[in-house]
Amino acid sequence: MRRRFRAARFPAVKNIDSFDFNAIASLNKMLVMELARCDYVNRNENVIAVGNSGTGKTHIALALGLAACQKGLPVGFITASALVHELLEARDEKRLLRLQKQMAKVRLLIIYELGYVPLSPTGAELLIEVFSQRYERGSTIVASNLPLDEWTSVFSSERLTGALLDRLTHHVHILEMNGESYRLAQSLKAAGPKRDPEAG
Asked: Which pTM value belongs to this model?
């Protein structure tokens, strides 16, 4: 379990029990609880978590990744920009095929922050190749602040975006996570009401 956890490169430990479902009314709690059983990974299905910033997409992705680790499944957790950087670096160093083979062994690949940083055409093509290689051979979770119809702005090509979505959404569970920023609400709550200095 510890070895799988280290290999996944989780930036933090999060679980389903610590998520406040009441804060995000659009999120289907029953679906999240079902996904935590990890049957979708055995069926090579995908998950897309879409919503504005601060609504807990990374928390849910981390929690599902932890659940998969606990089930004995190899997991990878990485931002979209970091993954593209690794792919470009591997291509330049003539070890892209080796990296792709390593990634193929990961049963659940979690890619978060898709849409925060525009990708170069070459980077976009390499990332789409990752999705294509995993099609019906592994599960992928994608967390994005952009609705699916705006993904073209990330991949800079309607043709490539269409090809990606065709594979990614064939067997998919979509988590709608739009609402007020959970992080902002927690910060305001922690700050408490502002005190009027003239009130004594």
From this structure: 0.87
